[in-house]
Specification:
The chain has helices at residues 2-18, 22-27, 44-69, 79-84. It is 64% helix and 0% strand. It has two domains: 1-40; 42-86.
Length: 86
């Protein structure tokens, strides 16, 4: 019960901390309004950079899951097998 109460408290506090303040909300474009602090992307180049970084992050996540789930190594003493056997 204590853990559940603590997690609810942390969730509520994190929502308050992570949401943008009213001044920052007015400076943000519609797509990021209420999500971040600061002025936000100023030009189309900023959106391009955000898109490329997001694509790299997504590909890295997909490949890390792929090679963790099906490592391709069948040797029983390989480091990946020790992770999967836990």
């Amino acid at each position: 019960m204590r853990l559940k109460t603590f997690l609810i408290f942390v969730f509520i506090i994190s929502l308050h901390i992570l949401s943008a303040c009213p001044v920052c909300e007015k400076q943000q474009p519609k797509i990021t309004q209420g999500l971040t602090h600061g002025a936000g992307p100023q030009s189309n180049w900023d959106w391009l950079i955000i898109g490329v970084i997001s694509a790299i992050t997504l590909l890295t996540f997909i490949y890390s899951l792929k090679y963790l789930i099906k490592p391709g190594e069948h040797n029983s003493d390989h480091i990946k097998q020790s992770i999967l056997s836990k």
